[in-house]
């Protein structure tokens, strides 16, 4: 039997944390201090997402890397990481046995592998990459592709293996991953749910141990306790797991328009390193102690034989014994209500409910997953600069286009993504019609598969509606009064990211589907009717959030043009003193996007409340690397009626860090690399 060297890995979503690269060294150092050995990452090549530089930084700090190539990655990332142009390729069916898709996927994977090889980044070349992943959780959707699923899996595996990287490939949630590709588990309880490797010479790998769960608009963040994470990680190792990857160890920020549908800008803030890169206790410290305890068991784990036997009705021992007396034990109490006293090798041990004790020498308890000794360190946000003087703001009202001002015309309702190509969240649908009475009782009814809709009649706002993560279709139904004569109806359909999951992403439909006006007597159907379109907002097209662009329009004093939705606001501010991370408090705003010095720091949607009545996200990460000492340009695009006068620039810090942060158990993976495989 070959047992693999195991690693603790963290999934670092480099795509998500598109922090400027100067944040990488300290984030990687904190991961290493937390007892991790491997960084998992997705990637991108453009701008500040320099994958080669990131991997070299990981290597410089003595860590390893798992490269999750995909190219489909899901990851709550816009379109699951696939480029939007791919949907326009003739005859394409994503992620199936389809020649156009396989051609483009093959080209991408080859380009990336060649880039890594040319920089000598694979472990086989002396680099840090020890694993790479092809596809992502395909087993979840495979059935939808019928007979085109299995041949695609076989093709993807053999294509990847054929690239001869010299390091293994994994497929996660793919029980039938073809040899030699390793089937890996994703989930919260892989120690309990994973059926194991699908052939005896493969290691048990857990590619995503969910440290929390990503949040969607309208829902509270889901938290998972340090004890629960530690229990399942220890169990997975006890059951001969080789590699546990926390998803996420650091989630980061989805800057710009990079989130998938309905995903907030902040990503996995509940992870051991929070959105700002600060240590979240007790998660970080408890897992660090777990990692240290497991590393004390290395020799028997790597070269010993595992035996397992019951210690009680719901208690179990997993014991690893080497040839020369080394012994490590994992004592499991799976009773979630009571303490259990168990006898193991003539000693008694008290195991708290639902916990695992780790005995690196089969005698002394080095760690128990339910006993959290890490303390303190609560995050606090200090109010910095308030923008509460109306005269420091200027505003620019976005024009509401009428049909007669549009140039793109069709006699049907156009599909939104096909029309915008995802260059913008915004698509205006406009039409004009004659109304021959003064009847005030009309009802405007619009059905949409976009995410948000704002309705205007003759330039006046009449109402808005939005969908939700669980209910994507929605309707706007408003009583409106039309003029006797010509009327202009302008409907702004807004997307909050493209979908990232499920089969047939290329066929998803968004935007308006049906428009009717109901009078007392009858209704008019405008679904097939002369429509005029405007792609994007004027302010976006002029890039008025940049220094150059902002001079292209006439800004006016705050509040000078009434309370119309769709207003741009701008002001200047100085960076807060000190080194603490900076966050923009947008709690007084509604929905929109924010830019600092021309960089989008993401969409905000403060008005979409959770069931507790609070915003899904109030503070927005503003990396110091985006800031100058003085005169930073802040621009907000507000779709609703938010109040910029209450916005503030705050700083984030951890008060009172005590406990075990500084203590470390210095077992380095390089110390036992040589013993990584044994028969
Ligand atoms: C993964 O980590 C989460 C906490 O983040 C934990 O609750 C869960 O049990 C772990 N998953 C498994 C399979 O252990
Ligand atoms: C613990 O008990 C639960 C419920 O019976 C079961 O699903 C799970 O697999 C058990 N876990 C272990 C580690 O025995
Ligand atoms: C388990 O034992 C501890 C320490 O003896 C005690 O504080 C705790 O209340 C016990 N828990 C239960 C569920 O009995
Ligand atoms: C446990 O006790 C028995 C009887 O006293 C003894 O034979 C055995 O060697 C002991 N085992 C260990 C691991 O100490
Ligand atoms: C379009 O119609 C509006 C409202 O009647 C009018 O104010 C505007 O001047 C027209 N624009 C053009 C380009 O005809
Ligand atoms: C997308 O637009 C093109 C023309 O621009 C059209 O031929 C095609 O049918 C559209 N596809 C969808 C899915 O609407
Ligand atoms: C609507 O306008 C037309 C033309 O100006 C006029 O003849 C008609 O009386 C008006 N109808 C009502 C109900 O005011
Ligand atoms: C429209 O107005 C009527 C009464 O005039 C009212 O019964 C109805 O609820 C209103 N509909 C909407 C969508 O506001
Ligand atoms: C409106 O027109 C569209 C296109 O002709 C048609 O599919 C739809 O059924 C009509 N809706 C109603 C309520 O008549």
TrEMBL record:
Compartments, as annotated in UniProt: Secreted, Extracellular space, Apoplast
Enzyme Commission number(s) from the entry: 3.2.1.23
Major subcellular site: secreted
Residue ranges occupied by any Beta-galactosidase galactose-binding domain in the UniProt entry: 566-632
GO biological process: carbohydrate metabolic process
A molecular function (GO) term: beta-galactosidase activity
Domain Glycoside hydrolase 35 catalytic: 22-293
Keyword Calcium listed: no
Residue intervals of the Beta-galactosidase beta-sandwich domain: 316-372
Pfam families named in the record: BetaGal_gal-bd, GHD, Glyco_hydro_35
Catalytic activity: Hydrolysis of terminal non-reducing beta-D-galactose residues in beta-D-galactosides
GO cellular component: apoplast
Signal peptide: 1-20
Enzyme class at the top of the EC tree: hydrolase
InterPro entries: BetaGal_gal-bd (IPR048913), Galactose-bd-like_sf (IPR008979), GH (IPR017853), GHD (IPR041392), Gly_Hdrlase_35_cat (IPR031330), Glyco_hydro_35_CS (IPR019801), Glycoside_Hdrlase_35 (IPR001944)
Highest taxon of the lineage: Eukaryota
Keyword annotations: Apoplast, Glycoprotein, Glycosidase, Hydrolase, Secreted, Signal
Family, similarity comment: Belongs to the glycosyl hydrolase 35 family.
Protein name per Swiss-Prot or TrEMBL: Beta-galactosidase
């Amino acid at each position: 039997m070959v047992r693999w060297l195991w690693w603790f890995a963290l999934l670092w979503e480099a795509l998500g944390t598109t922090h400027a690269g100067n944040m990488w060294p300290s984030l990687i150092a904190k991961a290493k201090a937390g007892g991790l050995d491997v960084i998992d990452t997705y990637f991108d090549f453009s701008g500040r997402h320099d994958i080669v530089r990131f991997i070299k930084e990981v290597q410089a700090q003595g860590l390893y890397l798992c490269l999750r190539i995909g190219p489909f990655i899901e990851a709550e990332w816009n379109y699951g990481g696939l480029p939007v142009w791919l949907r326009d390729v003739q005859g394409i069916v994503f992620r199936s046995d389809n020649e156009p898709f396989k051609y483009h996927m093959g080209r991408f994977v080859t380009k990336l592998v060649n880039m890594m090889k040319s920089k000598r980044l694979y472990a086989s070349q002396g680099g840090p990459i020890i694993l790479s992943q092809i596809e992502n959780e395909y087993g979840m959707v495979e059935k939808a592709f019928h007979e085109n699923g299995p041949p695609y899996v076989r093709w993807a595996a053999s294509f990847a293996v054929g690239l001869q990287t010299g390091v293994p490939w994994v497929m996660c949630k793919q029980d039938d991953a073809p040899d030699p590709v390793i089937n890996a588990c994703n989930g919260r309880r892989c120690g309990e749910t994973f059926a194991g490797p699908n052939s005896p010479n493969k290691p048990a790998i857990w590619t995503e141990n969910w440290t929390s769960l990503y949040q969607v608009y309208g829902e509270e963040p889901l938290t998972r306790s340090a004890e629960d994470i530690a229990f399942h990680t220890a169990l997975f190792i006890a059951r001969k797991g080789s590699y546990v990857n926390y998803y996420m160890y650091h989630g980061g920020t989805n800057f710009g328009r990079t989130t998938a549908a309905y995903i907030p800008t902040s990503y996995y803030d509940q992870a051991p390193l929070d959105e700002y890169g600060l240590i979240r206790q007790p998660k970080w410290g408890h897992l660090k102690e777990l990692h240290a305890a497991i590393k004390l068991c290395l020799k028997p784990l790597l070269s010993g034989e595992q035996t397992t036997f019951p210690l009680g009705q719901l208690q179990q021992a997993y014991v690893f014994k080497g040839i020369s007396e080394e012994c490590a034990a994992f004592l499991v109490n799976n009773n979630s209500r009571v303490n259990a006293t168990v006898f193991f090798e003539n000693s008694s041990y008290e195991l708290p409910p639902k916990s695992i004790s780790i005995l690196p020498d089969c005698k002394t308890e080095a760690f128990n997953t339910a006993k959290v000794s890490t303390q303190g360190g609560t995050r606090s946000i200090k109010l910095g600069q308030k923008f509460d003087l109306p005269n420091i703001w200027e505003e620019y009202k976005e024009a509401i286009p009428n049909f007669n001002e549009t140039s793109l015309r069709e006699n049907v309702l156009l599909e939104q993504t096909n029309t915008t190509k995802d260059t913008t969240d915004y698509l205006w649908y406009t039409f004009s019609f004659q109304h021959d009475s003064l009847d005030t009782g009309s009802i405007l009814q619009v059905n949409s598969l976009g995410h948000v809709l704002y309705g205007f009649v003759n330039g006046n706002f009449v109402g808005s509606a939005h969908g939700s993560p669980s209910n994507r279709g929605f309707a706007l139904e408003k009583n409106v009064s039309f003029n006797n004569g010509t009327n202009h109806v302008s409907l702004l359909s807004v997307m909050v990211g493209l979908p990232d999951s499920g089969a047939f992403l290329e066929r998803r439909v968004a935007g308006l589907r049906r428009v009717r006006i109901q009078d007392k007597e009858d209704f008019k159907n405008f679904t097939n009717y002369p429509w005029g379109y405007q792609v994007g907002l004027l302010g976006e097209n002029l890039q008025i959030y940049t220094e150059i662009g902002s001079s292209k329009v006439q800004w006016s004093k705050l509040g000078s043009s009434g309370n119309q939705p769709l207003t741009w606001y701008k002001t200047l501010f100085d960076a807060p003193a000190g080194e603490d991370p900076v966050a923009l408090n947008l709690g007084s705003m509604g929905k929109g996007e924010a830019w600092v010095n021309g960089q989008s720091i993401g969409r905000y949607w403060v008005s979409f409340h959770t069931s507790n009545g609070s915003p899904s996200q109030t503070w927005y990460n503003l990396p110091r690397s985006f800031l100058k000492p003085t005169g930073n340009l802040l621009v907000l695009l507000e779709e609703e009626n938010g109040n910029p006068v209450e916005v503030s620039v705050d700083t984030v810090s951890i008060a009172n860090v005590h406990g075990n942060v500084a203590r470390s158990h210095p077992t380095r993976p390089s110390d036992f690399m040589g013993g990584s495989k044994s028969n």
